[in-house]
Design brief:
2 domains; Alpha-Beta Plaits
């Protein structure tokens, strides 16, 4: 079966994620996390990647990067190979470290970019590893929020310029604990569908068709709303 195509081009921004095989650890202690950051810095320099954020967790990692040369696959292949070789050598383990190739999603607008700006640092909070993003040392949050001097390879301006200030960034991340338009994997949630009362202010065949075919309401749901039989709805849809 052919591999799915990856969409990349010079200047494309991506949400990238990698997972340990069978959810196994890819970092065990501080030395592993520190070495991962060292390799990330080398990847950024070697492949001319702009890194806007990262979050390392015990069995998976997230990155927000821009591939200035359209070479994301080469960069991630190199990073993944170096990481796996180092980890396997340290723990004297054979075999694959990661669950297949890296995953990625193209960031096509500012709204998605800003949602990812808080999705990454909130990962350890939602996983129960800490109570606040500033408590987790293995994400880019503390550097972006001005709590630590950012490393040279971290481009924090992409968020700060859009939100207005470092304090606004911290507030934006905090608000993400209660409200987000992304699911647990960092993918955009579908917009909430309108209610049947909105779609069917009156009993019309067109309204029934829109509710069923465009918004996914079942015949039974529509019938119950209109107080008719589902067979009648079926006939009208036909």
């Amino acid at each position: 079966m052919p591999r799915p195509l990856r969409f990349d081009y010079p200047g494309a921004t991506h949400h990238v994620f990698v997972r340990g095989v069978a959810r196994s650890p890819i970092a065990v202690d501080d030395a592993d996390y520190e070495h991962a950051l060292f390799l990330l810095a080398r990847t950024v320099a070697r492949f001319e990647i702009r890194c806007h954020g990262w979050c390392y967790l015990p069995n998976h990692s997230h990155f927000l990067v821009t591939s200035e040369l359209g070479n994301l696959s080469r960069a991630m292949q190199w990073l993944g190979t170096c990481t796996a070789q180092s980890f396997n050598r340290r723990y004297e383990r054979p075999g694959h470290l990661f669950q297949g190739r890296f995953g990625s999603r193209l960031v096509v607008d500012d709204n998605y970019l800003l949602e990812l700006a808080r999705y990454l640092p909130l990962n350890p909070v939602r996983a129960g590893l800490c109570s606040a993003p500033a408590d987790w040392p293995w994400s880019s949050y503390t550097a972006t929020a001005g709590l630590l001097t950012p490393p040279r390879f971290l481009d924090t301006t992409v968020f700060i310029e859009k939100l207005g200030s470092v304090d606004a960034y911290a507030a934006w991340v905090a608000d993400g604990l209660h409200e987000s338009s992304l699911d647990e994997h960092g993918f955009p949630l579908p917009p909430p569908r309108p209610s049947l009362a909105t779609l069917l202010p009156e009993d019309s065949d067109r309204g029934i068709a829109v509710a069923h075919f465009e918004h996914g309401y079942t015949k039974v749901e529509i019938a119950n709303h209109l107080c008719v039989s589902d067979s009648q709805i079926g006939r009208r849809l036909a």
